[in-house]
Write a structure and sequence with these properties.
Elements (H helix, E strand, L loop, with lengths): L9 H15 L14 H12 L3 E6 L1 H13 L9 E6 L5 H5 L6 H10 L2 E13 L2 E7 L2 E5 H14 L6 H13 L3 E7 L2 E13 L21 E7 L3 H6 L1 H6 L8 E6 L2 E5 L4 E4 L2 E20 L6 H6 L12
Helix pairs in contact: 2-3, 6-7
Bound molecules: adenosine-5'-triphosphate.
The site of adenosine-5'-triphosphate has 24 residues, from helix 3.
């Protein structure tokens, strides 16, 4: 599935190079260009009906998310029979960072050829848009509140043809000027937490926002979401602590809480926005559930799961009982 809009149009320019590499490594494939938003969901469903069982997303996190949604809404085969590979041409490519998927196209195609498969968790997000309940699968991270507002602004800029990882920082600064923290009620595996919250991230993998680590200890196959809750915080404090978003120390901040759980519910008045895998969706009330090791993905040759497991740290706070 080739998204010609990914990376601000880079995928369509680079497709001849990528297709030559797929031929060079003797990977037999057919390709389809997406023609509109959500088209990769439909194309994935159709491809599986036609008998394809290995799907490569050529794009960024959004294209990959649509392929995953196609895999989980189709009824032809069990999703466990499908394997997903990626060639990253997106702007953020955050999911790719978790698995050390190379930037270099040739290394990427070689990794697909070698087909080291990892089974990762899949999240299910339920949200509301125009008072109608929707469901969306995700494999990287979901953001609520300020995080979703930054994604909304970034996506608007991408729709206007802007590109580059600095879009996220630019949107973050613009969003910071206007955003107000909201009273949010969070339920994690039945335990309540209520406070005025600036931002909340629900992670399966570790990176979002073009390289930020808001859930720095997430393990993608443990059947648990890592949730990071940033309580109301001054704008100056946000700016002073920006490096923490990149160096994995965000949980050490006194206004930040980390919890783990399988089932998350979020309510707020007024409603706050949601993004999943960088795609801007609807708003609260929200429900998240997780399917452990439900998707087979091809990882980079350098990816070493045991390195991640060693970093698993149990310092995360338990959510306060109501
Ligand atoms: N033909 C198309 N025309 C317009 N939008 C499309 C088309 N095909 C796919 N899309 C949309 O393009 C959006 C961006 O895709 P994607 O996320 O893969 O690229 P990106 O934004 O450059 O990368 P990243 O999310 O990693 O920063 C997705 O929301 C997808 O729905």
């Amino acid at each position: 599935m080739v998204n010609p809009r990914a990376g601000g149009g880079k995928s369509v320019v680079d497709w001849p190079i990528i297709s030559r590499l797929l031929n060079k490594y003797d990977i037999h494939y057919s390709h389809a260009f997406t023609e509109y938003k959500y088209h990769a969901v439909e194309l994935t469903v159709q491809a599986i009906v036609k008998g394809y069982r290995n799907i490569i997303a050529v794009g960024g996190d959004g294209t990959l998310n649509e392929v995953v949604n196609g895999i989980f809404i189709q009824k032809t085969v069990s999703p466990s029979e499908i394997t997903v590979g990626v060639i990253g041409v997106g702007t953020g490519n955050d999911w790719f960072r978790m698995y050390e998927i190379p930037h270099n196209y040739e290394e990427c195609v070689r990794a697909i050829k070698n087909k080291r498969v990892f089974k990762q968790d899949v999240g299910v997000a339920e949200y509301y848009e125009s008072s109608v309940r929707h469901t969306r699968y995700f494999i990287n991270a979901a953001g609520v509140g300020f995080d979703a507002e930054v994604a909304r602004r970034t996506n608007r800029l991408k729709d206007l043809g802007k590109r580059g990882a600095l879009l996220y920082i630019f949107s973050l600064i613009k969003a910071l000027i206007r955003y107000r923290s909201t009273r949010i009620n969070v339920k994690v595996d039945g335990k309540h937490f209520q406070d005025t919250v600036f931002s909340l991230t629900i992670g399966i993998c570790r990176f979002n926002g073009a390289g930020m680590m808001q859930v720095p200890f997430a393990l993608s196959d443990d059947g648990l979401f890592d949730v990071t809750i940033i309580k109301k915080i001054s704008k100056l404090n946000v700016v002073a602590n920006l490096p923490r978003l990149y160096n994995g120390t965000i949980l050490k901040h006194s206004r930040v809480l980390g919890v783990r759980g399988k089932s998350i519910e979020i309510m707020s008045i007024p409603a706050v926005g949601l993004e999943v895998d960088g795609e801007s969706l609807g708003e609260t009330p929200l429900k998240f559930s997780i399917m452990q090791q439900a998707l087979s993905v091809i990882v980079g040759e350098q990816f070493n799961q045991s390195k991640l497991t060693a970093k698993k740290q149990p310092q995360l706070l338990e959510p306060a009982a109501s």
